[in-house]
Amino acid sequence: MSSVARVTEISAESPTSFDDAVKVGIQRASATLRNLRSAWVKEMEVGIDPSTGQINKYQVNLKVVFVLE
Predict the structure, then answer these.
(1) S-S: 57 plus which of 23, 29, 44, 47, CB 3.0-4.6 Å?
(2) pLDDT, averaged in runs of 10, over the chain (69 residues)
């Protein structure tokens, strides 16, 4: 049986790590999109608190693939 998939881009963030941001994004995508098949990280970015110079968030842009019904 043939299938058709769609690729969509999402952004997720975490105050903890890039790994956690990816998990947050995948969990949220799987709650909304059926037939989620794969994902890859397109971009990674950190947010920096200007008053302290410390990292305050980890953000990822993910491409997620799901098969259309």
Answers:
(1) 47
(2) 92 98 97 95 97 97 96
For 48, other C-beta atoms within 10 Å of its C-beta total: 11
φ/ψ of 19, rounded to 5, equals -55, -45
> What length does the chain have?
69
The amino acid at residue 64 is: V
CB distance 8 to 62 below 8 Å: no
All domains of the chain, ordered by start, with CATH?
A: 5-67 (3.30.1660.10)
Distance between CA atoms of 60 and 18, rounded to whole angstroms?
A: 7
Q: Which residues contact 49 (CB under 8 A, 6 or more apart)?
A: 55, 56
